[in-house]
Specification:
This protein folds into two domains: 169 residues, P-loop containing nucleotide triphosphate hydrolases (Rossmann fold, 3-Layer(aba) Sandwich); 37 residues, no CATH class. Helix content is 40%, strand content 14%. Helix 3 runs parallel beside helix 4 and helix 4 packs across helix 6. The two termini are 13 Å apart. Bound molecules: zinc ion. The site of zinc ion has 7 residues, from loops.
Length: 226
């Protein structure tokens, strides 16, 4: 039974995806990434417009989320879901909580906001790379952090192909995505607060193993009777 959802939010390049990838390896744990549940034609539209990078309309979000929640609530193996970079607005928080109330009323929702100083965050955006071969993104805009080979920082450690920066990390797009997070964050935090959900602030400058350990405390599993 799905017992818990943890929203992992924060501005671009604080490490949300690395962290959810790491925690997603825990048995019974799944990771929700919105774009993996959005029709490719809609992704392609958001990719073509710099002002809309990563922005998906609320109806599409509602359909994607409802389908996902119905699936994991009944698959008999998912106990916890990590939401990578979701919700992105107060409206999306209310959407999420509304869907859970109907489809998984016993699911506990928690939220963690990763916090990092500006310099470190920009430095992380500059060095992170993706692999177009290992991650076959429908909009040709891969997101998952790639591991470089030991001998060459620009070669993929898995397939040997050339690594690339993320498209959305180009300075203008990174600035636009950061500005959107800053704009949406107050409404997002307020919507969680209105639902009685405390948003935990997590210092993202630490080693990923420490971060994962802290975040795993938020995940309710069958081994911790409520
Ligand atoms: Zn690769």
């Amino acid at each position: 039974m799905m017992e818990c959802m943890v929203a992992v939010i924060g501005p671009p390049a604080v490490g949300k995806t690395s962290l959810t990838m790491r925690l997603g390896e825990t048995p019974g744990c799944s990771v929700f990434r919105l774009r993996e549940h959005v029709p490719p034609v809609i992704l392609a539209a958001t990719a073509a417009d710099p002002d809309r990078v990563d922005w998906v309309d609320d109806l599409t979000v509602a359909l994607a989320l409802r389908g996902y929640v119905e699936r994991v609530a009944t698959d008999g193996k998912t106990q916890a879901v990590l939401l990578d970079n979701f919700p992105g607005s107060g409206t999306q928080v209310r959407l999420l909580l509304g869907i859970l109330r109907r489809r998984a009323p016993r699911c506990i929702v928690r939220a963690a906001e990763l916090v990092l100083d500006e310099r470190t965050r920009r430095a992380r955006a500059r060095v992170r790379r993706v692999c177009h071969t290992c991650e076959d993104d429908p909009a040709h805009d891969p997101r998952l952090p790639a591991v470089a080979s030991n001998s060459d920082a620009w070669k993929c450690g898995r397939c040997g192909g050339t690594l690339h920066p993320r498209r959305g990390d180009a300075p203008r797009l990174l600035a636009a995505r950061t500005a959107r997070f800053r704009q949406e964050a107050p409404g997002l935090r307020q919507a969680f607060a209105d639902a009685g959900i405390n948003v935990l602030h997590v210092d993202a400058s630490r080693d990923i193993a420490d971060l994962a350990a802290e975040l795993s405390m938020l995940i309710v599993t069958g081994s911790h009777p409520a």
